[in-house]
Amino acid sequence: MPVVVYSVLRVTLLVLTWVLLTWAGLHPLAAMLVAAFVAWGLSYVALGGPRDAAARYLAERAAVRAAHAGRPVLSQHAREDADVEDAAVDAALGDTALGDTALGHAVIGDAVVGDAAGDAAAPRTAPDDDADERPADGDRRAGPSSAQSASASPSSMP
Fold it and tell me: Within 13 Å of residue 76, how many CA atoms lie on the same side as its CB?
């Protein structure tokens, strides 16, 4: 909330300065440019308290986010819900950390990491979808030379 209060005060300073300068006879565009600089200076001098409150608020929020190290900050109800979901997933996977498959291989993403004995398993790869669509050597179309001969040349034009 302190950030909103500080922002509203700054915008109010800008608008009041612009109105005063326009009322004084300055062209509205020139008044806006001058008002921006005047409001910037006035907000630095006159709004020190709200600016410091906004800075403290933002610093506290940054500290909370840093304490959670990238994890989302959840409400109490959301944390309870997440704990229930985590327990259900752990029960479904048999309390395994990586989620072993029926063959004993640990699957992370699309790669098979290894089996239960620790032996490395062959990585799973997607089939080559383009293999069936490649034309045989005799089926290939002619290159750019035939396309050039089919187009009209400048000498054949009337």
Answer: 0
What's the predicted TM-score (pTM) here?
Answer: 0.45
Four-residue CA torsion sign, 58, 64, 67, 70: negative
Q: What is the DSSP letter of 104?
A: S
Buried b (16+ CB within 10 A) or exposed e, 34-48: ebeebbeebbeeebe
Q: How far is CA 62 from CA 3, 67, 75, 79, 118, in A?
A: 14, 9, 17, 20, 42
Count of residues making up the chain: 158
Q: What is the dihedral of CA 20, 23, 24, 25, to 10 degrees?
A: 140
d(CA 100, CA 90): 12
Nearest residue to 125 (alpha-carbon basis) of 106, 107, 137, 111: 111
pLDDT digits (tens, 9 = 90+) for 36-87: 999 999 999 999 999 999 999 999 988 887 777 767 767 788 888 888 998 8
Alpha-carbon span 107 to 122, nearest angstrom: 11
Q: Is 6:39 a contact under the CB 8 Å cutoff?
A: no
